[in-house]
Amino acid sequence: MRTLRRWIERPEGRALFALLFILVIGCVFNAHDAFFRWGTHRDMLRQVSVYGILACGMTLVIVTGGIDLSVGSVLGLCAVVFAQLSLRRGLPAPVAVPAVLAVGAAAGLASGAAVARYRIQPFIATLAMMVFARGLAKWLSGGEKVSRAVQQPDGSFSYVDLPGAFERLDAKVWGGNVAVVTLVFLGCVALSWVVLTRLRYGRYLYATGGNEEAARLSGVPVRRAKLLAYGMSGVFGAVAGICQAAQEQQGDPEAGVSYELTAIAIAVIGGNSLAGGRGGIGLTLLGAMTIGYLEKILSINAVAESSRLMLTGAIILAAVLLQRRRIE
Amino acid sequence: MPEKLLQLSDIGKRFGANRVLESVSFDLYAGEVHVLAGENGAGKTTLIRILAGIHPEHEGTIELGGRTVRFRNPIEASRHGISVIHQELSLVESMSVADNICLGREPARAGGLLLDRRAQLERAGELCARLGLSFTREDLGRRAEQFPLSVKNRIEIAKALAGDARIIVMDEPTSALNHEEVERLFALIDHLKARGCGIVYITHKMEEIYRVADRITVLRDGRRVGTAAAADCPPPTLIRWMIGRDLAEQFAPRAGPAATGVRAPRLVVSRFTVPSPGPGRPPAVRDLSVAVRAGEIVGFAGLQGAGCSELFNGLFGAYGAVCGGRVEIDGEPVRPESPGASIRRGLAFLTGDRKNTGLVLGMSVERNVSLSSLPRVSPGGVLSPGLERSLAEHYVGALGIRLESVDQETGALSGGNQQKVALAKWLATRPRVLLLEEPTRGVDVGAKHEIYGLLRGLAAEGLAILLISTEMPELLGLCDRVVALHRGRVMGVFDRSEATPERVLAAAMGADVPQGN
Ligand SMILES: Nc1ncnc2c1ncn2[C@@H]1O[C@H](COP(=O)(O)OP(=O)(O)OP(=O)(O)O)[C@@H](O)[C@H]1O
Ligand SMILES: [Mg+2]
């Protein structure tokens, strides 16, 4: 009992509690026994992966006390660039992937510079990047989806071959039991975990979010810490964009609209505080699973879209209330 | 027999598994000052936070004027005429001074719908004037964050006096005030006593206790050790009650100059200038020159706005590379440009405001202690948990910080222990030059004694220490030389033998004093 209390007092414990709660609901409302089949869980993990990748970057930024609204647009931009490079130009993956990651990093660093160097509020700086990157995606693609179908001068369509990278990313491994994008997501979680808990710079992120002025006077390179957070968020946006392009087999300039909101929801449902200075990637992982299962349960029970949205909203609020630190 | 205002009986409080108060009783009569004393972490602040309705869950009862009450929140306590000056200031930094002072009891017009701005400004202005803050209407409209700590401290006091509270609790109200400001507060306290208010007063400054106290209650480890009239409780008794043993002299006698020898200058500052804080104002520090030898402790005395704090900030590079003049450390010219660069050169700067500029309160004690020494505990950029833990535990032990574990959140420590964490962070950088602004703010007598010993020891090892303090005994007892600043200029330099409170104060007030050397 005592240990249970101690667990519930820790944010990880509460995030786990929220997840278990959703799982219980899943076992109760278990249409066609779907919840007892591994495939359901595998699909949940696959479907939440792209959001989860974005949430990793979001977590780094939230820890510094900021927010990144541009991740959905960066995803769209990078999906378009990836499709153009590898689908249309036929560049091999080892060239195309780093190029796309560089695009994402550039977008993130631009927001980061606006926040760190020019002291623009993160909400506003990344809102600007959100609009700009979406525009850039549309301009690069001419507003069309960059797909396998290429229109010939005579008006007919020809189809280019799908590059191997697309197929490999959209595949499932280990006897079809795990999707590759899920592994990519877990890789991003692991990378963020290393940054936040093992590296000196991770500590700088927490200190910056906890008390920026005290951190600065303690010799913490506050600006570089912020650049790192937004830069990595941009890179994760690019990774998500590549995965999304592979899953859709095209680069859609409209891809990722409103994904930033899901990424934020994942981070806060896990118990990260938007005030900054605390939280961690483990919480985000738990938050991603909670959101993923929620969506899955609602869909296997064929809940209508309207009720689904209302329920999701209510549950986000309930989870955050549960997460709230007891203030004394 | 005066009227009994307050009776706390058998108050107990736990935080998790940590028992902080155990069956404490305390009473207060109209027209008296009841001092609450005790070591850092004894539970003083917790007791008065219970009285203020901040911790509604507690054991024991609160009686006001004979009626038992139970507060669920601070608003209820304030409706019952209890007003608190909190140890950690509770101003809304982004609101104006006047709004802060009248917060929660805004004068209203039109049946309570409209804020009566004029009445509010008048009320706030009058209260500030009593505390020696000559604020214009414009100043009253400025945001609280624009003022230095000592001014904010007085704004907080004005806020507590804005209501018509009968019971006024002051939790270390003078920790950021200088001599003159403290005198004004005491005059105000006399006035309140005459009006029939009861005052609970918490402080670690012995001379203050005997200035204001009618009665004294001492807490130790969450229990009440005793209550006595101030006259029946001379300092040795009081100290024994507080720390459970006798204390030798506060300032240990130092080794004479023959033993230490004259060492090379460590920090040489010549014609140092810090630009003005705002347009149209004179520079904060003008053409200041001072040399500090290895092993020397040099004190800086000055009133609000004299430039002491600005000098330290400037030397440390907290303002960036905007200061003029020459700075040399161990003969090597340096240019203050950023805190990070200064730390690498061996400078350390303990700021005077631990809550806003000293600590990351949401982080653990361990992480605060190591924050400025991270490169040393993270070889190749990778944190080493073992190195970090041993660094933190070493300094927690050296400074006698009271805590359950170094993983505890720093904000959950008592005020004095937080102060020691801030000091530990800077000692952990193993500096060559140590800039200290109010190093013992909120620290109890016993711990002060230890810290003075520690600083002396560090100086003997060759550190150069520069110190700002509003506490005259600290300045005169600890320092080899005292420099008095007035409006950014040096008004007098006093050797240890010639420094007296009167001479230092006179120089700090701007009187011309013949220079010592
Ligand atoms: N919110 C909290 N959560 C957990 N522990 C707390 C909290 N507030 C105080 N404590 C603990 O209660 C004990 C008493 O603290 P308190 O602040 O009352 O001491 P104090 O007598 O005011 O000391 P100081 O002179 O340093 O201000 C300390 O050990 C502190 O760690
Ligand atoms: Mg206290």
Characteristics:
heterodimer, A: mainly alpha, two-stranded antiparallel sheet, two-stranded antiparallel ribbon, B: 517 residues, alpha/beta, Rossmann fold, 3 domains, six-stranded mixed sheet, 20 helices, 22 strands, globular, binds adenosine-5'-triphosphate, binds magnesium ion
Structure, explained:
- With 328 residues, chain A is mainly alpha-helical.
- Chain A has a single domain, classed as ABC transporter involved in vitamin B12 uptake, BtuC, CATH 1.10.3470.
- Chain A has 14 helices and 4 strands.
- In chain A, the strands form 2 sheets. A two-stranded antiparallel ribbon of chain A has the order 1-2.
- Chain B has 517 residues and is an alpha/beta fold.
- Chain B has 3 domains: 240 residues, Rossmann fold, CATH 3.40.50.300; 172 residues, 3-Layer(aba) Sandwich (Rossmann fold), CATH 3.40.50; 68 residues, no CATH class.
- Chain B has 20 helices and 22 strands.
- In chain B, the strands form 5 sheets. Chain B has a 6-stranded mixed β-sheet with strand order 6-9-10-3-11-12, sandwiched between helices. A 6-stranded mixed β-sheet of chain B has the order 18-19-20-15-21-22, with helices on both faces.
- In chain B, helix 4 crosses helix 6.
- The N and C termini of chain B lie far apart (59 Å).
- Classes of the chains: A mainly alpha (328), B alpha/beta (517).
- Chains A and B meet through helix 9 and helix 10 of A and helix 12 and helix 13 of B.
- The structure holds adenosine-5'-triphosphate (ATP) and magnesium ion (MG).
- Adenosine-5'-triphosphate (ATP) binds next to strand 2, helix 1 and helix 17 of chain B.
